[in-house]
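Q: Hi! Curious about what Chemotaxis phosphatase CheX-like domain-containing protein looks like structurally. Here's the sequence.
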Amino acid sequence: MVYKHAKPFIRAFSSIAKQQFGQNVHIGELHKGESQITTKDVSIIVGVTNELVGQIIFGMEQDCSKAIVKAMMGGIEVSELDDMGRSALQEYFNWVCGNAAANFIDYDPPYTIDITPPIISIGISKIYPSCPEVYSVPLQLDSGISVELTMSVKERF
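A: Let's find out. The predicted structure is below.
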């Protein structure tokens, strides 16, 4: 996988953070990771299929996930990730990945991708993705909300 596969997700995350929260996203350095992924306190996992296949994982600490949910719910204080909070997180990252899928059309060569509904993993665990190459990039909003985008994606053909 090359950096171009990360760009549509970074672009979508940045665009939606600006629209939803009015904040800029500071993009860290892309780095190659291990074939096993150690998740964060809260991880949102989205499958990718069609011309690219693999998984996208958005990992964050519990406080960051609550801050995203609070913003999604109009500023309502969030003390725990209940059903509504988890649903808001899933919706937010589904929105990001859906926009990223549309962004892939603008790249050379363009890719057609489909995404699976997001699932949430609470607690630190190890994930062994289907693609051996894993890349991560930290994304931080002006407010300090920090999300690590981890990708394990390859071309199908």
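A: A fun detail: DSSP finds three helices and ten strands in the chain.
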